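Target chain:
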Amino acid sequence: VTSQRMQGVLLLVFAKYYHLPFLRGVQTETTRTGLGGYWGNKGGVSARMSVFGHTICFLNCHLPAHMENSEQRMEDFESILQQQQFEGQAATGVLDHDVVFWFGDLNFRIDELEIPAVKAAIDNNKLTMLWEKDQLNMAKDSESVLGGFLEGPLKFPPTYKFDVGTDTYDTSGKKRKPAWTDRILWRLRATAPSGPAPNAGKRGSILGLSSGIKVTQHFYRSHMEYMVSDHKPVSSIFTLQFPYKVDNALVTIMVEDEWNSIADATCTFKAAPNFARSSWDWIGLYKVGFKHHKDYVGYVWAKQEEADYHRVEHEVTFTVEELPKGSGDFILCYYSNNMSTLVGVTEPFQIQLPTSSPAGSPSDDSSDFTSEDDSTVVGMKTMSRSPSPRKKKHRARRSHSRSPSHSRSRSGSPALPEMKGLKLQLGSAHNTTDGVKEKASAEAGDRGL
């Protein structure tokens, strides 16, 4: 869906392809706090979006290190919240969003206890004693900016600091005290107007009622098996249940179940009345399993001709140059230039074209389009791996009439299996990538680098 990087702090957001039309208003922000705001070794990166009509913000932070800098960590966090502002009226600040996931190397330490006492508590599985002395937990009792932030119980050992390549806590001359530096928290927006209220600074206090969204944390764990860093990564799986969903697709694409010949390679689409089309919009043909909107096999322009203004449905045709050589499962997606995202998708359909290429058609070495599973994702914005459609001349489209009885309408939102809520889910228990993966099922995985 999107990505944002600031030196070692990386945030990636993924989604199932069929949710893409309902992820809108995607924006990212970066705030440097190192060396007075000039260096990005510390700070925060965020990504925000509207998901089925509800605003969600993911904030990945790397806060100042060392035991004595707890106050500086809070100051940097407040600075990040103040500086990160987004366009639009729904949610301009991080805390204005319906749901906020805050995670990363927050660098809070365990106060008061000495190293031998901390290690003894870990060895004897007396983690509650350490949790009570955790700086972040103690700060929730006094810092109003932390009001409403929730965290699951820390039932795993402190994730810092280890000798690299081992499960042994720091044996270097620095002798760092073990601590839960790597954390995942969440917050639901209050619906009542903000203002002074009794116990506003107390831990867990939320002004007014929540936004109606229910957040369930299924687990919160560390991954001790990873030894490439002096930190151990942590991850969590959440389920978000929305009180309602805005799931009207901006563009609906209709396509046949199969393309068995070049003549079949057409589709029709219709746009919602409130959707602003652009002459740079296009429809891409993607192999099931694509990871970026530029991973198309071919595309055609969805340019609106003057004669098309009063038409409800529009037809486009793929030429032989835009089709794969071979068979497989594919998807059509409508890319909006104004919104810089895919706003319409189809369900997977099959292409089984004749193996012999027409005379004069260009050869294509990438002819292996064997079927993959339908866990299609769209990944981070990377350097272009294929020519931009803007650099290609508009192709003349030929009209091809089809019998409506042979066509099955495929909505921009394929049949979703009774999805009562949006699920944030981790793709693998062995994933070390920091950030939160949103699959429509979402998952918040953390390691603030």
